[in-house]
């Protein structure tokens, strides 16, 4: 269960107190997805509807409560 | 993560069932661990769901803030992502195939339990999505399996088991005892429901207590998330 204040949207993340940290975290996450070859960018085939996606922001704490 | 409510059955996904551990299994395994004084270690898999293979072609919009070459391109997924309906199943199938390839047998009674035994060496693996508990009475075998897992998946070795699913585990090897408690989890619940300063009271209630119908319940009850509170307590009750 996590109850701390985490941004709900990209807008909130990039305009809040920790904007810089979130920006770096997002870039790192995106880069790792690209490096792992998670997807390739293609034109959408006819008759298909793309599913949508969203960023999920989580502050992770270690066993000692410190932010990881 | 992908938004699963935008997926269409038959087009973007088929089967979605994935097994989840039964609390009675973990208690059995912990009891065995104590009686036979076995080693019990914990490992978790980093970004487990990325390991799953997709059976369907899935197209996803580009993530917000990282759109390339205009809006007309979409992401064709090669790997499973968090949030897809089939992600837990795809991951579980991958793991199941791997554990079977290293001579483990899945329990028919609980699909989250894997067992192998060669002569005196007994090994149990208990799977909770991406969290594993490894129980073995032989240190070398334990190390060997940990290495095999680490070669296959990105693993984090947490060493001796201390915390699992909100439970704290303490051991007394000399007496072959194992203690479980949920102090941390219960304190977290109290904090969540703003009851950390509450006074302890004995249960069951005095049988003479008369329960009265709450006449103005509409304004009183809505302030407390009772269903969530009862759910949290049920979980505590089931575990220890």
Give a structural overview.
The complex is a heterodimer of chains A (68) and B (240). Chain A has 68 residues and is mainly alpha-helical. In chain A, 34% of the residues lie in helices and 7% in strands. Chain A has a domain at 8-17 and 53-68. Chain A has helices at 10-15, 19-35, and one strand at residues 39-43. The longest helix of chain A has 17 residues, at 19-35. With 240 residues, chain B is α+β, with helices and mostly antiparallel strands. Chain B has two domains: 4-165, no CATH class; 182-240, no CATH class. Chain B has helices spanning 23-35, 87-101, 139-152, 183-192, 217-221, 226-239, and strands at residues 39-45, 59-60, 73-77, 105-106, 113-118, 121-128, 131-136, 155-160, 163-164, 167-172, 177-181. In chain B, the strands form three sheets. Chain B has a six-stranded antiparallel beta sheet, sandwiched between helices. In chain B, strands 9-10-11 form a three-stranded antiparallel beta sheet, sandwiched between helices. The longest helix of chain B has 15 residues, at 87-101. The radius of gyration of chain B is 23 Å and the shape is flat. The model of chain B has no long low-confidence stretch (mean pLDDT 82). The A-B interface holds A 1, 3, 10, 14, 26, 30, 36-45, 48-56, 63 and B 1-4, 6-8, 11-12, 50, 58-66, 68-69, 72-79, 81-83, 163, 188, 192. Strand 1 of chain A pairs antiparallel with strand 3 (73-77) of chain B, so a sheet runs across the interface.
- Low-pLDDT stretches of chain B are none
Oligomer: heterodimer
Query: What is the distance, rounded to the nearest whole angstrom, between the alpha carbons of the first and last residues of chain A?
Result: 17 Å
Number of alpha- plus pi-helical segments of chain B: 6
Q: Which characteristics define this entry?
A:
heterodimer; A: 68 residues; mainly alpha; 2 helices; B: 240 residues; alpha+beta; 2 domains; six-stranded antiparallel β-sheet; flat
